Amino acid sequence: MPLLRFKDFEAYSDAFAGVDGILRALSPNQGEWILHMLDAGEVTASLGRDGGTGVYHGLNHVDRYLAYMALPGSDTAMQGQDTSDDMFVWFPPRAEIHGHTRKISRFMGLSMDAAAVVQRAREVAGLFDEHVARTHVVSIGRLEVAEIVKLVTRALMIDLEDPTLFQAPSVRKAFSGQVIHALLRCMVLDNPEAVRRSRGRPPVPRNEIIRRSLDHIHKAIRGDAVIGDLVLSAGTSQRSLNRAFDEAFGMGPQQYYMLERLHVIRKALREARPGDTVTSICSQFGVWDQGRFAGMYHRTFGLLPSVELAAALAR
Fold first, then answer.
1. Cα–Cα 20 to 30 A to 178, which of 43, 118, 220, 251?
2. b/e burial code for range 287-313 (CB count within 10 A of at least 16 → b)
3. What pTM value is reported for the model?
4. Domains (ranges, CATH) in the chain?
């Protein structure tokens, strides 16, 4: 979706995804009200820049969760608490939202399908229902929040460059799954006591751990699963999973996943057709940071993805 630019603050607030509310201006406009949105199905991401200061109150939609992040340089209060770049505010369906800004501010909003969040919270993160079903501040640290902001910002930029990419179900599913998993992971790290702990789990044989893991890794690469769910899929502990992969392949499961994804993308690059780009191919497999990926690709295969693609198209 292209950047939405508003001269009117009311039109700006009416465009917010997953929320019905009212914005009251506190000062004359000092610039345009800008909103960049990306609808990926289970997640709708919004990056906003206010054109002035204001007071906001609204109601989250009945079938959506919302994560709100004030971006660096902002001066915002949400739910009566000053925000910062090391936290986000979690809103369940039908939650009341109250906030105000003291200067021109920027925010990121992540509106998520309620069914997808609940399923992942129960089956993957192990969070109690009451933990995800209440409004609260998740104070986790700048690095964790910055990683989520970086992921979403990169996806928004890719969408601007090629709006057709996020029409592919695999790309939408990969992005949505990564975002929801990252937020729930932060909630677990913020409050470990909110997680159900299973006891007396029977041990899983190493070969079965590897079989289940490889099946899940291939699904994750195709966009049919999220790599963060690997421990659940393997049916064992993180320690046992790490040990099984180290014994079988001499590397950890995450490293193996990245290696396997490199080879799958290499095959896709070598089979590229006119109109394909490195970005479009990488996005199909959930890779949003092309700079970092290009470095890994070069270290593994001795050439850059762009060179691989150019050679394929020349053939």
1. 251
2. bbebeebbeebeeeeeeebebbbeeee
3. 0.82
4. 4-190 (2.60.120.1030), 198-314 (1.10.10.60)
